[in-house]
Every structure is written in C-alpha cells, then in structure tokens.
Specification:
A hairpin with a 5-residue loop joins strand 8 and strand 9. The protein is of the alpha+beta class.
Amino acid sequence: MSTTSTGLVSSNGTELIAGASYTNGNGINVSETVSAIIAADRAPETAWTTDETNITNQEAALTNLQTEISTMQSAYQSLSDFSGVFDGLTATTSNSSAVTATASSTATVGSHTVVVSNLATTGSSYSSEVTSGSISSGALVIQIGSGTAQTINIPADSGTSGTTTLANAASYINAQNMGVTASVITDSGGSRLSLTSTSSGSAASVSVQSAPSGLTFTNVAGQDASLTVDGVPIDSATNTVASAITGVTLNLTGTTSSSGATVQVAADTTSITSAVSDFVTAYNAIISDLNTQFQYNGTVAAGTTTTSSDSTSGVLESDPSARLIQQQLLDAISVTGSDSSSSSSSTTAISQLAQLGITMNNDGTLTMDSTTLQSELDSNYSGVKSFFESTTSSSFSGSFNNLLTNLTDPTNSAVTLDLSGLKSNYTQDQTNVSNLETQLTALQATLTTQYSALNTTLQMYPTDLMEVETELGYRTTTNSSSSS
C-alpha cells in the first residue's frame, strides 16, 4: 500500500500538519486532524488569558495599595483633625493613693493643689441583736436624708404567727427599691438587720423612725467629702468630684496632709508620639510596597550580562498610576511650609518634618527620632500642634491633606480609575475568548463534516483505482496474467 501527503492546512491558510498522511485503504484520523486545526486556530487565546492573569495580579496589588493609602489617611487624620490627639490631655497627681484624676478636652493645661480632709461616706442604720433568728412582722418606717418618711410593711412568713426571719425581711426590703440596701450581719452575739443608703453623703443618710416590735435601730449618718482645690473649700456628696476643676474629674481615695496633692493637667504627648509613629509606619508601608514593585530582582549566571529578561519586578512596574502616586507622596512629604496665621510670641513656627526628628532615607522611607520629637513637644507644643493642624494650602499639613483627599477619592482617585480601566480590559479579554470559542465550535462542526467526507473518499480510493486500472488494461485477472 502507498502513503500520500494530505497537504492539510488551517482555516487561515497556514500549513497545519507538516507530513500529515494517509494510508491507502485506511483514510485519515478525522478527530485528530480537526483537533489539530482547532488547536492552531485557538493560539490567540494564549495572549488574552495571559493578560487576564496579569490584570488579576495588578488588581490585587492596586487594591492592597488602596488599603495602605486608607490606613495612612486614618493615621494622619488623628494628627491633623482639631478633635484628634492634640485635643487630648492627661491629669497626673503627686499622691495617687489619695487623689487620682482624668482630664477631658475642655480642661486647661495647668497645676492645681488638692487637700482632702475627709472622704464621703454612706449613711446606715443597724438593728439591735436578734438571737432567736426571727423578728416580728410589721411596719418599718425609714427616712432618707430630709426626705419624706417611707413605710415598709414587712409581712409574716407563711405558717407563722406574725413573725419572719431576718433574711426574709432583708429580701423584702430590697424588693421595695426605696434607696436602701438591707443585709443581715451576724457575729458571736447574734444577728442584726443593716440598712445602708444606696448613695453617699450627708443628704442620703438613713434613719429609722419606727420598727416592728422588739427591734431598735442605731443610725449612723453619712458625711460629705471635704476638700479644698487651690484653697477653695468644697463639699461633695461623693468621692468623685467633677465640678471643682473645669474638664477634670477628681477621684478621692484617701486623705492628704495639709500640703495636699498636686494635680498636673498637661498635653498627652505619649498619645501624640504614638500617633506620629503610626503615620510614619503607614507611610513607609506604601513607599516600601511601591519600591518593591519597581525594583528588578533576578539571578544572573557568572560572566553573563544582566538584561530585563533576566530579572523580575512587581506587577505594577509598568503601571503609570503607581509611579505617579509614588512621586506625589515623595513630593508631598518634602513640602516646606508653616501656618503663619497661628504664629505667636510663645510659638516657634515649624515648617518641615525634619524639625520634628522625621527624616527621609535614601529609599524614600521615613525615620522618626522620638527624642527630638519629645523635646519639641515639651518646648514648643503649640508650634507642633499648628504644624499638623494647619489648613493653609501652602503648609505641609494643608498640602498633604489635599493629596490624601485626591488619593482616596472614591470616584476619581488614580487607583480607582486604574482599577476601572483594568476591569474594562479584563472584560474585553473575556469577550474575545468567548467570541473565538463560539467561532471555533462552529468551525469544528464544519471541519468534522468536511474531513469525514474526505475520509470516506480516501477510504474508497484503492477500490476505485483498481477498477480504473482494470478498465485501462493495467490490471488483469489472475488467469490472464499467468497465460501472458
């Protein structure tokens, strides 16, 4: 049997299978032939699917960058907002065993002397000892401070003849919610019913006006806290004094000597330093990320020359938006400018981060010297506050906040627009693949029909050839050939 080339070509005219052949009488493999043609025509999909993978990686990198920018914005807002960390104050005392304090934003920086003579106490009333364990039921009349007397009718226990236990009496009194807490106190002499005011101070003292038969009560008056603040005498019904110093709450825990305790209200520089550190960390995260995107890394064999094909870089290496953001941040962090409107005789204007101990490294990241920052906060607090809170467009803070606003714009930021463009490109790649697959499906059906017909013809070719040869006298029967 002879072997003949088919000369098969793809639908675009390119030779498909060099040396493709058939064997007389056996035809061709239709399935393999059609699959080979379809595979060749599917080649453009490689570029599209590769682009889809690249786009997915770029989107992930840009989304991460977007998150890092948002983190930096939050960190800087705590410094630049008027209600941020510069609005916070702390209150410390020289005698924390007697006085502690907290300060709100309405407080004023300064020092105060607090002398505590006595603490506020809670008034109480206790009964005579009961040895039998039971008391008579009946009316218990109590008075809180100068208020109206109140009557509590203590019921008898079921099955008894007008008596109840101290425990049941206490439980019943507590259920009335009359401003006292009842409890049973037991010692070697017996048990007593104790009534304690739910509030402290002399105005909340408890006194028992009358009691069930057999009980007598001793009243112990509550008292107000007595103290002086900067020499001004103050009485307080509680040991929490919130009105003596504006914006400062004093918590009394003991008495002091006549010299008292010093309460110092000052700026919360610890929180400010922490906020500056958070900002530097967030800024460095972005710059380091972008540096990685634009840095080539690769291993090159000894004696060879490094080329772009030898190395790899981040997926945003050729992304213009990422490079723009990097340049904008480097420019903004280097801005020199101060808020001249806030300058005063007691304030030294600060115009750049370096004056606060924040300097730029060769790779664009920042380093913070906390000692320099603390020194500036201690000596020039108003200047530091004005530097970060300035809204003047030419100042560092004003220009940096403007950049942050642009970088986080939900509609027109560089990252948002970049992501939108990538999404559009990804959709187009998917459409291209889908359209080609549709065309290839139709082509496969057509080719299968055509090559099936061709295969049938090729399989019949030996028989047809034999008949022709016989007709032409090139082929005779076996007997004739023998006679010849």
